[in-house]
Design brief:
This protein has 204 residues and is of the alpha/beta class. It has one domain: Rossmann fold, CATH 3.40.50. 37% of the residues lie in helices and 17% in strands. It has eight helices and six strands. It has a six-stranded parallel β-sheet. α5 links the parallel β5 and β6. α1 runs antiparallel to α7 and α4 packs parallel to α5. The model has no long low-confidence stretch (mean pLDDT 93). InterPro entries: Isochorismatase-like_dom, Isochorismatase-like_sf, Isochorismatase_domain. Belongs to the isochorismatase family. It comes from Vulpes vulpes (Red fox).
Length: 204
């Protein structure tokens, strides 16, 4: 039997979880916030169709407000936190899923909670798939360098549609027609071309 190569970054519904990080009312000023939330909402719709569990956090909700309604996260119980990582707040959720292999990560800010969550998850031996069109920062320099930093540390950088198609796996999947409706229109532009173009040295 062929050996499974863990470094390929394959994602499967039965061993994946979706992390939704801190998309709250007081963060609406962050660059590309509406686009980031739209992409995260797509990921959540697909996760529900494929029975991929999802976890939602809120950073200091007393001061920064609740999760924005357009994320469509009704039915998820937000986990409050103050740490600049999701992992301490959702540790019990992680420990309750021994089959877990891959975490799909969306939210804000890239250089803060997304980066630190990624490092904590990698430390636990989990694969991290950062949804690049589903993460942003106030500063696009911070966003760019944080994405490069996570890649250097061993995280996978993926687009939302790339991950969605990996999860569904086959056009014969019984949920494919519903998922096709979700991805029929391309994900909104969140400024990524400007970050990646010109053979950016951070991504060599």
């Amino acid at each position: 039997m062929a050996t499974v190569r863990s470094n390929l970054g394959r994602v499967l519904p039965g061993s994946s979880i979706l992390f939704l990080c801190d998309m709250q009312e007081k963060f609406r000023h962050i660059a590309y916030f509406p686009q980031i939330v739209s992409v995260a909402a797509r990921m959540l719709k697909v996760a529900r169709l494929l029975e991929v569990p999802a976890v939602l956090t809120e950073q200091y909700p007393e001061g920064l407000g609740p999760t924005v309604p357009e994320l469509g996260a009704q039915g998820l119980r937000p986990v409050a936190k103050t740490c600049f990582s999701m992992v301490p707040a959702v540790q019990k959720e992680l420990e309750s899923r021994p089959q877990l292999r891959s975490v799909l990560l969306c939210g804000i800010e890239t250089q803060a909670c997304i980066l630190n969550t990624t490092l904590d998850l990698l430390d636990r031996g989990l694969q991290v798939h950062v949804v690049v069109d589903g993460c942003s920062s106030r500063s696009q320099v911070d966003r760019l360098v944080a994405l490069a930093r996570m890649r250097q540390s061993g995280a996978f950088l993926s687009t939302s549609e790339g991950l969605i198609l990996q999860l569904v796996g086959d056009a014969a999947h019984p949920q494919f027609k519903e998922i096709q409706k979700i991805i029929k229109e391309p994900a909104p532009d969140s400024g990524l071309l400007g970050l990646f173009q010109g053979q950016n040295p951070l991504f060599r």
